[in-house]
């Protein structure tokens, strides 16, 4: 038996230092690590397609979009000579830039007009100072007619704003390739020659909208909890047959298209709608005082509570299912009344489900925009509606990216706070 | 394959009996077999399908795909351009968007007389379209108007009927909710008109900060009575539901609600704002796609085709030579002329909309208006 070569070697060739070795002499620890490494590599290869997919289709576009919130190449790219010439100019003084700067601007704009990019630059600078968009459009039309020499006078002749030092300060201020401008805009502030300050009161909207989004999402979460808790309790305590039946009623609306459900709420809630008609018919309200329940905050809260309710009921239900009835029975047998048994014994065990449901509903509602757009009027819209507006209508993608980045940070902060208070390991989905 | 030939043949023969087919459609050299057209959906797109693309498909057999994204056309074209992958071949946009797309280099300039069909009497296309060519990239199709309509059966109005756009701001005589478009264009002008500004001074006043304040203040008097719309199909629906008593929208949408669906509204043509709608070709299309688009355009914007479109919707053709050919509604058989925004009875008091002014000032006013709206 001991005549096989390996066996002979293992007994004679390796030092007896107490290290456990495998048959070929490598330390067992090393072998184990190697095996584990191979195991890890194999599982990594298995998830690699998914990882690649997420990186390419999810992380990369988000990163690219977020990058837009600080990117500001357009000034440098469109009028490079002017940016260079402006380096020598002191924006703190009250003097206009000198002739070479105007000449550089003429050369830059002539090319930009040819390539039709000057209006984009105008739109970009208009975010920072109103009137810039019109200025670049007008000058673009005038640039072809300009003669050589004394460009300063010709520019001021084309639009008197070129004679305003503030115009030049804005161009110089937004020349660098990166800008905090979008983020400042997203919190209702602006960068001026005197430093950063809040915008005039009639132009502030975003902080108010962030605040409204948070408060209304909280209200939606609370109303989902109040409505969903008894339903989940019922589902968890009925007989299997009855609870399956009821479960269908919870799931059917969940599977129905979001747009269909939102439109249904429009039909129900509008002033000539089903609910108002019913109230008038029963005489609870009279015809002249029909309730206004849609195109405002009420509409948004009602419709979104309904749409997000399953996200509260399902985690609650799955947690309640696992709570053993013997605890409540034990509490009662020790003399607790129904309420004490529920509140002291049953309820604390449902907290992981409440946590899961609440965080799910809250984070979903912060990012909602279709439902508020359709039923929210102007007082019931969320910050996401403004993001959508900037992406598809005003084309201010930088501001949309900045608002999105702030929203993302808010969600992460809330998640962190939630983890500190409730503990994320206490969240249970089943 | 055989079935397809039969279908095409029958479609072509039907088209011939309807005298829709142009006599001499030259073959298209070096052209792709399919194209993507973008429009607004609804009754308007349906009229384009019937008047332009169906006869064209019957004659050439190309595959036409329709997209309904025109209300986001500027954003999507810019995104496609940045990504370097423009998938659209022809896009239907309003004049203001066409100017913007052209300014930004996202739409290709067009030599109208060289690429479009001339009028039957030989007038070059550029002359036939005339002032409707508001931008060198724009190929006009129709004239529509943004106007208002009201419910004819509101009990609280005690038999009074609005005869001016200022009824929009008159909550005393015409109580009830209104619906206005969720953007400054037209609303600001109407507000100033009803605040006593003379028609010809509107844009001068609007140019100043005080003018903007004045317009917003006037709109502020009805702000809590307004349901703001963003899709033109909403106001006729809101009127039909009795949710609002007075609303602005495009005249063709009201036409279809009143005449085709028999809703109890009436048109209020006062201070209607003419606007244009037409095609733009995305910039830098590959040659074979561009050839196909140009081939289609020449057919779809000729005198007869533009007149045909008016059989399906009450928008006026943008070619002068098409106007005399406008006939009856294709299904209802009613005369279309009295429903056109350009009909003398409707155009008694028209407000002239200034494209160039809006092109220059839109960024500013959009921001102010949206902030005002959100507060």
UniProtKB/TrEMBL annotation, chain A:
ABC transmembrane type-1 domain span: 210-418
Transmembrane segments: 44-63, 214-235, 242-260, 301-319, 351-370, 397-418
GO cellular component: plasma membrane
Spans annotated as Disordered: 1-20
GO terms under biological process: transmembrane transport
Localization, UniProt: Cell membrane
UniProt key word Zinc: no
Topological category with respect to the lipid bilayer: Multi-pass membrane protein
Matches recorded under Gene3D superfamilies: MetI-like
UniProt KW keywords: Cell membrane, Membrane, Transmembrane, Transmembrane helix, Transport
First-listed, main subcellular location of the protein, grouped into a coarse class: membrane
Family: Belongs to the binding-protein-dependent transport system permease family. CysTW subfamily.
PANTHER family for this protein: ABC TRANSPORTER PERMEASE PROTEIN, INNER MEMBRANE ABC TRANSPORTER PERMEASE PROTEIN YDCU-RELATED-RELATED
Protein name: ABC transporter permease
UniProtKB/TrEMBL annotation, chain B:
Keywords associated with the record: Periplasm, Signal
Signal sequence bounds: 1-22
InterPro entries assigned: SBP
A Pfam entry, by short name: SBP_bac_8
PANTHER family: ABC TRANSPORTER SUBSTRATE-BINDING PROTEIN, SPERMIDINE/PUTRESCINE-BINDING PERIPLASMIC PROTEIN
Official protein name in the record: Extracellular solute-binding protein
Top-level taxonomy: Bacteria, Pseudomonadati, Pseudomonadota, Alphaproteobacteria, Hyphomicrobiales
